[in-house]
């Protein structure tokens, strides 16, 4: 964390380039969570400002539909993506593979078996509730 503190991320995040504006929203929010948890930089105010000033795509006008009250937005709006996730370039992978980490969401730890077990547990719980409702003397009594 000490090394990351020396990167002066607050200057990068607050720069005119505004990198958080061009990241995928899920990546931006995950970065903000981690940065706040480790007290590296607080970027929620920048995210809120970006959200406040970004317009839905349908309200954008292009050069061909210009009027004085609408912003001019290029028709080829930049869409962000992960061009190197996973890293598949063979020749350069010998240099990168040892330091590269595939993006992994914290929810990726849940396996299919976990989901099946959880689903079976929910079904059992619902069956128990229905059985108790049918056996009760008063309808809708949960005592």
Description of the molecule:
Helices cover 44% and strands 0% of the residues. It starts with a helix and ends in an 8-residue tail after the last helix. It has helices at residues 2-5, 9-13, 25-37, 44-53, 90-96, 112-135. The protein has six helices and no strands. The protein has a domain at 110-143. By secondary structure, it is mostly helical.
Layout: helices, strands, pairs:
Blueprint: H1 2-5, H2 9-13, H3 25-37, H4 44-53, H5 90-96, H6 112-135
Shape designation: globular
Rg, please? 25 Å
Unreliably modeled segments: 58-66, 73-80, 136-143
Mean pLDDT: 70
Family: Belongs to the RRN3 family.
Pfam families: RRN3
GO molecular function: RNA polymerase I core binding; RNA polymerase I general transcription initiation factor activity
Compact summary:
With about 140 residues, the protein is mostly helical. The protein has six helices and no strands.
């Amino acid at each position: 964390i000490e090394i990351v503190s020396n990167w002066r991320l607050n200057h990068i995040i607050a720069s005119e380039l505004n990198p958080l504006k061009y990241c995928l929203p899920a990546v931006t929010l995950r970065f903000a969570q981690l940065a706040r948890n480790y007290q590296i930089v607080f970027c929620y105010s920048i995210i809120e400002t970006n959200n406040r000033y970004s317009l839905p795509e349908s309200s954008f006008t292009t050069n061909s539909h210009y009027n004085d009250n609408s912003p001019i937005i290029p028709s080829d709006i930049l869409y962000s993506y992960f061009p190197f996730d996973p890293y598949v370039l063979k020749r350069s992978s010998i240099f990168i593979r040892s330091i590269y980490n595939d993006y992994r969401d914290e929810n990726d730890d849940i396996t299919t078996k976990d989901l099946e077990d959880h689903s079976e547990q929910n079904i059992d719980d619902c069956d128990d509730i229905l059985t108790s409702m049918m056996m009760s003397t008063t309808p809708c009594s949960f005592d």
